[in-house]
Design brief:
With about 400 residues, the protein is of the alpha/beta class. The protein has 16 helices and twelve strands.
């Protein structure tokens, strides 16, 4: 009997899921660099465009390499359907605009990545969509924000940059009671450590640029969910607005998925050690890491995450101290990316969350002293030495 990929372990899904070999029998997935496809006849073209015959039409609608990436990520996530996009922000944008129309209302956790906050605060209002921001850890706040026209909830968990964690299952119940859909940005947890769909979310989005690539090469994004919703909300918008993932990027992301489990588990181990070093240093005012028992939402983390991830946030008290720390690093790079094999640190107030007004940053507790570090695959001893030396300089 043929193996059912849904019965495979995670590691096997990551290496072999979605594989569609050409007649040549290649071991590495084939890269189909083509804009369009040919048909055997005019009748065949007609049937394919009508949806009566399977097959590819145009790269903007689908591509064999891209579909392998989509199928593999869907298998990993436990989703019926995945649709890839050109970037993580394209995934967020499409995920929201596919659900919302003029006159609709969105409820969002107030701790969001800067560009996500811009879409919600600046872009959606141009098209008649209103948003209420809430403390994502306060279930009563979610309930109180609901209106008769509420159609979607949006949450990052863990959130960028201070790793706030939301009880996804409880928020999903509130959303569904209101007739709304819950969208979860799962980038920080990765599909290895958290499964939002299994917790009750309707849609999960990723910036595949981060851990899925994991080696600083390409951009990519993905939206995953149940087939009826994915078709109803996203088939037309993806076909006609063109946020398509490049087949080359899809191929690179397929290669990234093969080692995703190995990388994020080792990065999480390194991050736990780095967090302990940071927390123990006299210059550190506060340390937040999802793998530490002193995390404000440690009980929720124990219930819905299986690992702490690779991101650590810590407060050094002032912008000047944070800059001194960053400038003293010799191994860790100063960069606003995360999830890479190389460790990176950034100052969110002047980079990733620069576009947020100061009052909004203060609402989520983001003051000038915070540093966000994405821990990579370097030797833990080297990382500890580099971090300690930089903390001394802070």
């Amino acid at each position: 009997m043929a193996e059912d990929p849904h019965d495979w372990e995670t590691e096997t899904r990551l290496v072999r899921g979605g594989m569609a070999r050409s007649p040549y029998g290649e071991i590495s997935e084939a890269l189909f660099l083509t804009q369009s496809f040919a048909y055997d006849s005019a009748e065949a073209a007609n049937a394919r465009f009508a949806g009566d015959e399977p097959g590819f039409i145009y790269q903007r609608f689908g591509n064999p390499t891209t579909q392998m990436f989509e199928d593999r990520l869907a298998l990993l996530e436990g989703a019926a359907t995945c649709r890839a996009t050109a970037s993580g922000m394209a995934a967020i944008h499409v995920a929201l605009t596919g659900l919302l129309r003029a006159g609709d209302h969105l409820v969002a956790g107030r701790a969001l990545f800067g560009s996500c906050r811009w879409i919600v605060s600046e872009w959606l209002p141009r098209f008649g969509v209103e948003t209420t921001y809430v403390d994502a850890t306060d279930l009563e706040a979610w309930k109180a924000a609901v209106r008769p026209n509420t159609k979607a909830f949006l949450v990052e968990s863990p959130a960028n940059p201070l790793l706030e964690v939301t009880a996804i299952g409880a928020v999903a119940e509130i959303a569904h009671a209101a007739g709304a859909k819950l969208v979860v940005d799962n980038v920080f947890a990765t599909p290895i450590f958290q499964k939002p769909l299994a917790l009750g979310a309707d849609l999960v989005v990723y910036s595949a640029t981060k851990h899925i690539d994991g080696q600083g090469r390409v951009l990519g994004g993905a939206i995953l969910g149940a087939e009826p919703l994915m078709t109803e909300a996203y088939k037309d918008i993806l076909r006609h607005t063109g946020p398509a993932l490049s087949p080359f990027n899809a191929w690179v992301l397929l290669k990234g998925l093969e080692t995703l489990d190995l990388r994020v588990r080792r990065q999480s181990e390194n991050a736990a050690k780095a967090a302990d070093v940071i927390a123990a240093h006299a210059k550190t005012r506060r340390t937040i890491y999802c793998g530490r028992p002193d995390h404000p939402q440690a009980a929720i983390i124990a219930n819905q995450m299986t690992g702490g991830g690779n991101v650590v946030a810590f407060d050094l008290g002032s912008r000047e101290a944070a800059f001194r720390f960053l400038n003293a690093l010799q191994i860790v790079d100063i960069s606003n990316n995360l999830g890479d094999a190389k460790s990176m640190a950034t100052h969110p107030c002047t980079t990733t969350h620069r576009s947020m007004p100061e009052a909004e940053r203060l609402e989520i507790g983001l003051t000038e002293g915070w540093v966000r570090m994405s821990v990579g695959l370097e030797g833990p001893g080297d990382l500890s030495r580099d971090i300690s030396r930089a903390l001394d300089a802070a």
